[in-house]
Amino acid sequence: MTPSTPRPSRVVKVVSETAPWLAVEEIGPLPEPGEGQVHVEMLLAAVHPANILQIRGQYGDQPALPYVPGFEGVGRVAACGPGVTRVQPGQMVLPLVQGTWADDMILSEKALMPVAEGTDPAQAALFKANPATALVMLTRMTSLEPGDAVIFNAANSSVGQNLIGICRALGLKSFAQVRSASAAEAIQGLNPDVLIIGDEIPAEATGAKLALDAIGGAATERLGGSLTEGGIVVTYGLLSGEAPRLAAKDVVFRGVTLRGFWLAQEFGRMAPADVRAIFAQLSDWLAKGVIGSRIAQILPLERAAELPDLHDAARDGKILLSTRHYC
Ligand SMILES: NC(=O)c1ccc[n+]([C@@H]2O[C@H](COP(=O)([O-])OP(=O)(O)OC[C@H]3O[C@@H](n4cnc5c(N)ncnc54)[C@H](OP(=O)(O)O)[C@@H]3O)[C@@H](O)[C@H]2O)c1
């Protein structure tokens, strides 16, 4: 075992159902990791729209207050308890449990995914959710052949950027929709097959078999109207706060259907070997630069209380929280 980190350690906590919601608390001293446990010094933690929904009490899974938020992040193993065999000190790892907005985590070795050495920590902190969401939606919602087209909105989001890269890797055409010229400028270097700016879907971006909707409301309806007969719209985000809907004429006369997608549920239905294969593929693509996300800001953990407002403001890329172990 190696010595533990400087103490005390800090965590972000959701402490209230109303603004300002968040507080940064010092905890510690940290216990030594027990049997099968690992002390992870966190480096960076991802800030996702779902975190902000959860902080505001609007997410599908609401822990009781107070709780430490954060669905993903990256850290290094600082110390291993007795019986730990899968990871070793110094190794870069991703925690697979909630509570990543913290300087340190002590958790079971089973709740860790090792990351290839040399991986950019910022991309590693975003590796678990959004790239997998993009790949699983493209491969498991309907049957697509190389040359088929996929249309998606919020294309400048992290999921959207990963969708563009994975579409190309799978030989699929990407029709990528954004709502502003600045968002289009941010992702034009990713070279989607068609970059759509604004609400209207041009003729060259019609006829896709699959639409991926992160927005809901009229945005869902517009995607549905652009699809080929029998196409499927998958809603995976509710960025507008409106319920997804389709036009009656698309449902009745053109056989367009709508379904939802939640990665956690999808993984729950899959064999562990299939989930491992997905992450092996994504790891290879991350190393080759096929996937990845733009980073807007790395915010020190002590400023976490600013997050809901910062996240709502216009930004080009993801916000990450940095801990005292990140330099
Ligand atoms: N179902 C699942 O399993 C699953 C998994 C992962 C992610 N998601 C969802 O995927 C979506 C994208 O997540 P992310 O982490 O990739 O996002 P992100 O990188 O943080 O980017 C946020 C995106 O949302 C857009 N946006 C925000 N409010 C909007 C509105 N009212 N109307 C239209 N667009 C709006 C932004 O566009 P501007 O730049 O133009 O503001 C930007 O493209 C989120 O809804 C998230 O919850 C779902």
Write up this protein.
A hairpin with a 7-residue loop joins strand 1 and strand 2. The protein has two domains: 148 residues, Medium-chain alcohol dehydrogenases, catalytic domain (Quinone Oxidoreductase, Chain A, domain 1, Alpha-Beta Complex); 136 residues, NAD(P)-binding Rossmann-like Domain (Rossmann fold). Strands 3, 4, 5, 6, 7, 14 and 15 form a seven-stranded mixed β-sheet that branches. Helix 3 crosses helix 4. 27% of the residues lie in helices and 27% in strands. It is built from ten helices and 15 strands. The N terminus is likely disordered. The protein is α/β, with parallel strands linked by helices and 327 residues long. It binds NADP nicotinamide-adenine-dinucleotide phosphate. NADP nicotinamide-adenine-dinucleotide phosphate binds next to helix 1, helix 3 and helix 4. The site of NADP nicotinamide-adenine-dinucleotide phosphate has 24 residues, from helix 1, helix 3 and helix 4.
Note the topology.
Layout lengths: L8 E6 L7 E6 L9 E11 L1 H7 L17 E8 L11 E4 L8 E5 L3 E3 L6 H4 L5 H11 L8 E4 L5 H13 L2 E6 L2 H7 L6 E4 L10 E6 L4 H9 E9 L12 H7 L2 E4 L2 H7 L2 H16 L7 E6 L6 H6 L5 E5 L5
Parallel strand pairs: 8-9, 8-11, 9-10, 11-12, 12-13, 14-15
Antiparallel strand pairs: 1-2, 3-4, 3-6, 3-15, 4-5, 5-7
Helix pairs in contact: 3-4
The chain binds NADP nicotinamide-adenine-dinucleotide phosphate.
